[in-house]
Amino acid sequence: QVQLVESGGGMVQPGGSLRLSCAASGFTFSNYGMVWVRQAPGKGPEWVAAIVADGSTTYHADFAKGRFAISRDPTKNAMYLEMDSLKAEDSAVYYCNTSPPPYWSWGQGIQVTVFS
User: Fold this and answer.
1) Cβ distance 62 to 4 under 8 Å?
2) 13 with 115: CB under 8 angstroms?
3) Alpha-carbon distance 57 to 109, whole Å?
4) Cα–Cα nearest to 106, from 18, 33, 24, 30
5) Which DSSP state fits 33?
6) Residue 36 and residue 94 in contact, taking contact as beta carbons nearer than 8 Å
7) 63, 19, 58: which is closest to 40 by C-alpha?
8) What band does 102 get if pLDDT is binned at 50, 70 and 90?
9) Which of 21, 29, 63, 101 is the most buried (most CB within 10 A)?
10) Which of 13, 29, 26 has its CA nearest to residue 90?
11) What is the DSSP letter of 90?
12) At 85, phi and psi to the nearest 5?
């Protein structure tokens, strides 16, 4: 059974940092690219960043460039999103999944709240 479990969120002030983690199981992690997607209240899903299966190439949305960094550790079947210089507009629930689609069932996500 595929499981994607996000962790590491929380509440931070603007300018702060968080490191999100995604623990993957139930599939061969090293065979899949991975993606972070977020959804803010009242808004649709927003693609954040992606990383290819071997970790050699990463992609970041324009709003994430220079502030966020996606990475993965195949030895731990884990993916990460390092987020720096956080802004209020980064507040959302963050989800991980494989990439490209079709997606596995989405996990519960992890809340990130940036407040002043």
Assistant:
1) no
2) yes
3) 24
4) 24
5) E
6) yes
7) 63
8) confident
9) 29
10) 13
11) G
12) 50, 50
- Tokens read off for 71: 């990475």
Measured between alpha carbons, how far is 101 from 34 in angstroms, rounded to an integer? Answer: 10
Neighbours of 48 (CB within 10 A): 24
> Which amino acid belongs to residue 97?
N
Q: Note the pLDDT of residue 44.
A: 97
Q: Cα separation of 23 and 2, whole Å?
A: 11
- Phi/psi region, residue 15 (left: phi>0; alpha: psi -120 to 50; beta: rest), is left
**DSSP code of residue 31:** G
CB atoms within 10 A of CB 78: 18
CB atoms within 10 A of CB 111: 13
25-68 confidence digits (pLDDT tens): 999 999 999 999 999 999 999 999 999 999 999 999 999 999 99
Cβ atoms 4, 24 nearer than 8 A: yes
Structure tokens at 56: 């050699």
